[in-house]
Amino acid sequence: MESVNHFSTIALLIGEPARAAMLWKIMDGRMHTATELAIAADLSAQNASMHLAKLVKAGLLSVAKRGRLKYYQFANPNVAYVMEAIANLVPKENLMSPDDLSDGSRIKYCRTCYDHLAGKVGVAITDKLLSRKIIETNHQDFMISGSGIKWFERLDISIPELKENKRALARKCLDWSEKRPHLAGAVGAALANKLFDLKWLQRTKNSRIVSVTPLGQKKIYDLLGLVV
Description:
By secondary structure, the protein is of the alpha+beta class. It has helices spanning 2-15, 17-26, 34-41, 45-57, 77-87, 104-109, 119-131, 146-153, 159-163, 185-197, 214-224, and strands spanning 32-33, 61-66, 69-74, 111-113, 116-118, 135-138, 141-144, 172-174, 181-183, 201-203, 210-212.
């Protein structure tokens, strides 16, 4: 009964509209100030602080103080997986923020899902990794093959080092726009970060939308035989 009560408490915290808006804002993978989250949820600073305190106390958010400002982010990646899973129950057109409505096709094409890639490009990359047996299906998760470990090494991504983290290595995250899984977990985050560092992908300011650069189009094709 205790676990049911705890589940109910978490569901109520996430389900409250203002808090849901703030959590959805954090899905872009960035740390946000209370002011930014208050604007996202259309709240006063005082009300936003009250809601944020509840989310921190419940272990859904963590807060870091830098100077006079407090920055909020998910306490752990599992919160992002829960948010993405819930998103699969919502009609696609209702999931876009006002800033993204005019770019509906772009956010469905390529975006961040917290700290890894999603959308058509994220799913396509995952499919290529599967077809080339770089990753393999393992029930609810993915696993990295022996040849996959060497493939990631060529991108300067160490699978043994990632295994030392407490975070799940390679998770299946059901994509809300494609309705198929994309690669999440420590490996998904490391791969996304590498593609951003290489300037193959580029973030869009104040949005989860990701653009594939001309360099990225060529390099991703060379790497995976994938046209994006």
